[in-house]
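User: I'm designing a mutation panel for NlpC/P60 family protein and want to avoid disrupting the core. Could you give me a predicted structure to guide residue selection? Please restate the sequence first so the numbering is unambiguous.

Assistant: Good idea. Sequence first, for numbering, then the predicted structure tokens:
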Amino acid sequence: MTGTRLIGWPLVDLSRAPNGPRDRQLLMGEAVDLTDAPAPPSSSGLTRGSPPGWLRVRARRDGYPGFVPEAALTPDTPVTHRVCARATHLYPAPDFKTQERAMLSLGARLLVRGAADRFAETPHGFVPRAHLAPLDVPETDPVAVAGRLIGTPYLWGGNSALGIDCSGLVQVACLACGIPCPGDSAEQQAALGAPLPEDATLGRGDLLFWRGHVGWVADPGTLLHANAHHMAVAYEPLHDAIARIEAQGDGPVTARKRLRAAG
């Protein structure tokens, strides 16, 4: 089976195997390409197709492969807006006193097909207009985007306001600013920005990489990152973070990279 689909659930794990461990997550409205590559071998060593209810996909945003439940997918249709707030709710009617249907995270994508007072009408329900931004108008400050997720619990492989990891925090901020971004920190180190010398003065929007970790420079003395030390997205004094990460056995900074200047 081939073709393109959209994620129709608010949030879904991109799993390494059917019912397997999470590698990343996908948000409502994100596009995936269906792939017909063989599924992993079974315990008997024989190659088998995807089990009923699961499909092998590749995320359009970064090429990340994995499996998702077939029920999480909807036909490929246009999307026009993205959630620009930390999180928002879907309502069955343009009334915030009605029982919400679901929560949507920063970065979720929707087709807006009309307006009703303070709400935007979408195929899934109504969303506060103040929480949406047009897809064709990118943001200019990735650190400001990442900062909306302060306090979000750390979650390995997470990509949402319910839980996020270090590379997820970098990716959601880059994508909001129209910057293509891989899903894992090692690939981000290779793909993002221009290298800075070790003695360069760091500025807002620079990225620091370690072996298996990445964080945003919020200002010359502050790091913004999702980390297992705080188990959350947190600000941390930059020199303290560098010393702590090395002391815990993860080594020194492996790269300093500079993206385009924030507007």
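For picking mutation sites, this is relevant: Residues 238-250 form the longest helix (13 residues). Helices lie at 142-147, 166-176, 185-191, 238-250.
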